[in-house]
Amino acid sequence: MAKTPTPDERLMRRAIALSRRGFPAPNPHVGCVLVRDGEIVGEGYHHHAGAPHAEAAALSVAGERARGADAYVTLEPCNHFGRTPPCTDALLRAGVRRVVAACPDPNPVASGGLARLAENGVATEIGLLQQEAEAANFRFLSAMRMRRPHVTIKAAVSLDGRIALPSGESQWITGPAARREGHRLRAECGAVLVGRRTVEMDDPQLTARIPGVVNQPLRIVLDPRGRLTGKERVFDAAAPTKHVTGPVDLNELLVELFNDGVTSLLVEGGGTTIAGFVRSRLADAVELFLAPKLLGDGPSWLNGLDLGNLAEAPSLEIDRIKRLGPDLRLSAHVRYRS
Q1: Closest C-alpha to 154, from 287, 327, 319
Q2: What fold is seen in the domain 7-137?
Q3: pLDDT (0 to 100) of residue 146
């Protein structure tokens, strides 16, 4: 028999559902619910970087009704000045009496919020439905723990693993629904990377062209020999672009990106670029969009892992398979052999 959720669990699940909204990269996904006398008086989530945080959004809705309320928030309230003031200050000014957080904030710059609230007389709790809240915020939390961006490999492929015909024709292998989800991934990650060859063959714009996107993703182009002209669409004014020329050390690049504020990276390059991340054991997740087509020949989505035997092969642990019209979306995380 299923366990009946407690009122605290029910309210935290509402906060977790709210946290899944918006495109806050490189910031975390956060949701907040304010409750007074058993009634929800305010809700909010972090819509995009630069917008009010979830707590501030919920407090704005609640107004004076926030005084004496309980706050349910999916991540420990921030305790520093960034693009916006500390959420701890806002909660204290509003007179919130109790704060229940699902996850501690692993970002050393922003952590310490619950301690500060407690020092000022606010009742605090941590850990309610932590696993569920972390699952809604896995990219950001992974980046904070690894001190590098979480890396997702994305490819649209035929059932025989091809990303284009031998001529280079690739538009479009998958249908509109799959392409929309690819755009959503760009917005969720906040940064997208390709190699020179992809730019030359496809001339992609690499923007997230779906409703609700305020901050376009950072576009990163690997061009070790500096062959691109700068006139390609990826260098237009639609989004910021980082053009990487010269020898590329992927580990060093990821550290540099993290230090610049990038917490999640979507790698959309061809098979050689993707293989570089897998060989370096830097690919954390894979999103494959599978079209019911057989191309027979043409480039593969993954080239040149240089495996000596099957025991060395990385494996994919499938998290979800979703139908998108005639196509399938396969979501998995990568496991490397020790």
Answers
A1: 287
A2: Cytidine Deaminase; domain 2 (3.40.140)
A3: 95
Q: Which residues pair with 315 in a beta bridge?
A: 335
39: Cβ contacts below 8 Å, ≥ 6 apart: none
Number of helical H runs and strand E runs in the chain: 10, 13
β-pair partners for 158: 291
CA distances from 227 to 164, 198, 202, 221, 231 (A): 22, 12, 15, 11, 11
Task: Give me the active site residues, please.
Answer: 55
β partners of residue 179? none
Nearest to 10 by CA among 56, 70, 65: 70
Task: Give me the amino acid identity at 297.
Answer: D
Mean pLDDT, the chain cut into blocks of 10 residues (338 residues total): 85 97 96 96 96 96 96 91 80 96 85 88 96 96 96 94 84 92 97 95 94 97 95 96 95 97 94 94 96 90 86 92 96 92
Q: List the binding residues.
A: 53, 78, 87, 156, 170, 172, 186, 198, 202, 206, 209, 268, 270-276
User: CATH 3.40.140.10 in the chain, residues?
Assistant: 7-137
Residue positions forming the annotated binding site for NADP(+): 156, 172, 198, 202, 270-276
Tokens 């000045």 belong to residue: 81
**Smallest Cα–Cα separation from 70: which of 44, 38, 102, 30?**
38
What residues contact 301, with CB distance under 8 A and at least 6 apart?
A: 155, 157, 161, 162, 163, 270, 271, 274, 288
Residues of the chain with CATH 3.40.430.10: 147-335
Residues annotated within a binding site for Zn(2+): 53, 78, 87
Match domain 147-335 to its CATH number in 3.40.430.10, 3.30.565.10, 2.40.30.20, 3.40.50.300: 3.40.430.10
Residue type, 114: L
Burial class (CB in 10 A: 0-12, 13-18, 19+), 140: buried
